[in-house]
Amino acid sequence: MESYLSLLRDSYGATIESVDFKNDYESVRQQINAWVEKVTESKIKDLLPIGGVDDCTSLILVNA
């Protein structure tokens, strides 16, 4: 697993983050939206709308 994470980081500048959708999905949604807004220099705001993430969400793949 560590070699895969190193490959992602070194080759693509990507990371994997484990989050708690089951108990804190709204906070996760807000964190993702904040990250997208930051890396797009506010060109994309609120990528994930209210209700777009819930306790049944298992994976979100984000690239910006």
Outline the structure in words.
The protein has 64 residues and is mostly helical. It has one domain (18-64). It contains 2 helices and no strands. It has helices at 2-12, 21-39. The protein is flat and about 35 Å long. The model has no long low-confidence stretch (mean pLDDT 95).
Number of helices: 2
Strand content: under 5%
Q: What is the residue-mean pLDDT, rounded to a whole number?
A: 95
Biggest sheet architecture: none
Q: What is the string of helix and strand elements?
A: HH
Q: Which geometry do the CA atoms define? A: flat
Percent of residues in helices: 40-55%
Rg calculated over all Cα atoms: 13 Å
Number of domains: 1
Task: Tell me the number of strands.
Answer: 0
Low-pLDDT ranges: none
Through-space gap between termini: 24 Å
Secondary-structure content class: mainly alpha
Protein name: Serine protease inhibitor
Family: Belongs to the serpin family.
Main location: secreted
Domain Serpin: 2-64
Q: What's the arrangement of secondary structure elements?
A:
Elements: H1 2-12, H2 21-39
Report a brief summary of the structure.
Pfam families: Serpin (PF00079). Belongs to the serpin family. By secondary structure, this protein is mostly helical.
Supply database-style keywords.
64 residues; mainly alpha; 2 helices; 47% helix; secreted; glycoprotein; Serpin_dom; Serine protease inhibitor
